[in-house]
Amino acid sequence: MRLDVNGHEVFAATGGKEFDTGLPTVVFLHGSGLDHRSFALQTRWFAYHGYSVLAPDLPGHSLSAGNACASIEDSASWFSDFLDAAGVKSAHLVGHSQGFLTAIEFAKKNPERALSLTAIGTAAAIPVNQALIDTAKASSAKAAHMMVNWGFGPGAHNGISAVPGMQPIAIGRAIMSRNPLAADLQACADYTSGDAAVSSLGNIPGCCILADKDKMTPLKAGLKLADSMGVKPIILKGYGHMLPIEAPRQTLDALRNFVSAVQSQAAA
Amino acid sequence: MDPALRRGERSGLGVFLDKWPAWIYQARKNIRKIYMSNSSFYKPSTIALHTGYSPELQFGSRAVPIYQTTSYAFDDVSDAKSLFNVERGGHIYSRISNPTVAVLEQRLAALEGGSGAICTASGMSALYATFTTLCSAGDHIVSSEQIYGSTATLLRHTLPRFDINTDFVSINDPEALRAAIKPNTKLVFCESISNPGMETSNLPEIAKIANEMGVPVVVDATFATPSLCRPIEHGANIVVHSITKWIGGHGAAIGGVIVDGGNFDWGNGRFPEMTEPFAPYHGMRFWEEFGPNCFVMKVRSEAMRDLGAALSPQNAFLILQGVETLSLRMQKHVKNTISLRDWLLEQDAVTWVNHPELDSNESSDVAKSLFPNGAGAMLCFGVTGGREGGIAFINSVQLASHLANVGDSRTLVLHPGSTTHSRLTKEALEASGISEDLIRVSVGLEDIKDITSDFAKGLKAASRVTGKASK
Description:
The structure holds two protein chains of two kinds. By secondary structure, chain A is of the alpha/beta class.
């Protein structure tokens, strides 16, 4: 669906069904340079199993207009406006990589609006080398080239795809090459409040889905995040940083088990 | 290379997280020169052997297994529902997808540098699926006038019955191409090397013009194979092959493939087929849903489901055996072709030779630019004695096979004017670069001395028609 946020049109995938504010909502936040298609398969499952789904393209990314947010704090503020525009009071928040930083910064300021928080392939801090940011400033395509090399695990490098006939590396590269990667990476590099944000989450239920072959937010950093969140991490073996694309079914299984459990507890 | 990229690549894997230990950087810095294609960081010969398949997922079977099955058992009702709703990837019915075929698709997508691929029952069904996925009644195609005879028949006769009409142009004439593109044009079609005219399409120039006007470029790259040219790197948006030919290489199985370049903006307003709700899939909007791979997803969801021209798993397995040695075979094919071409140029009974790299070929500069490792294994030549000389040649060769195919590991010869292109009018024949004395050769992998010896017999027979001696 398309909606206006601060004067700019924003696209948000709804998983193939009409968005219904009367249902429990799951919101997916994509990583640096990516878009809603990172969660193509997960969003459809939730939409067809009793949830309403929103997977926005962040400003300036793929199908959304406007300029990319300059910081994670700006991104969290924009996200609040986005939820207001969609008429969502509270939601289960799912963030991949940079998307999780936005989610925790938002939840820190709006804890009552986060029904749960799921971290996928991420950490509380994502420091970025200036050389990569400089490369992205010169060319998103060149930076995307480097990032898909490190971002995908061995299976994707061997051309293994969960969807018959597809090449996940090429799909990721095509999306990232056209998006404002430099702004995203700079926002990640500048964000140093992740640990404080995580420690402020209080009783918000959390879930950590990590990959043991993650070279971009290494498992060690993810385990530290899980520890800070007080949750037992779910570690998917053999996969890299791009978990929602590389291992869509395993990621979905972990995610739906968690969100369903939180919903059941809330209903009880 | 710009300074920022150089610095980035110099930093190797330590570039993203700035806290990587030094030993990781040291271990990884040797893979700086990694760029291969959009899909894979492996080199072509490695892709051809490994991509798309992992033994540990298949009981350790080192060879790709043949999944000779029509259908796939669902875990439960929920599992079935999730597959039909495209909530997860997987196989439902082998008309739409099959595990053995999927390996071939993923391998070919990686070899071409595409975002995805779909195999079909033949090269012609790949073209039909591509054209009908992009075009509806009232739409328009711009095609090179130098194309394969069956493709010409599809565009000139079959598709117009469904009100999909084609204008044919000299594809390397930028002004003619630009002028031919209309508001309802849905694609520009050409062959990387035309069959049998041997014209090389200037892919970068064609893609620049077409894409600027919001139209994708579809390239039949059968004659070049991804071993010699990857059209997506030159701006093409969709690549089609008859994988019956060199990709298979053995002449034992018929098949086709469609590769999505993942590099076209289907949301530019010209393609409601990609942007508007698709009723058979719950109103799915393919561009919004799948982005870079929306074209192949649409082909699988519509053309494969409705038309049913699926590649059989047995044929996929056979073609995979050919793919594994593609790069090696193409080197030998090219070497033999150049040797035969040069030998033919010296024969008195040969009136002319056409090969993409010869200076006499109008597009030779383009060929040399696009095919640095050789312009394929096809050549054409004229024999003395015209039509009768050609017939005498065909009837006299013994090693070369006279048949309607190309890209076999064996040398093949054909007289197009009386076979593949026989349905074309004289004018259309001439526009396709075909004369009555034309002999088309698909140069095989035999010892070149045996090939030239065989051709010498044919030329001697042709010479008898006119009484002209062959050297």
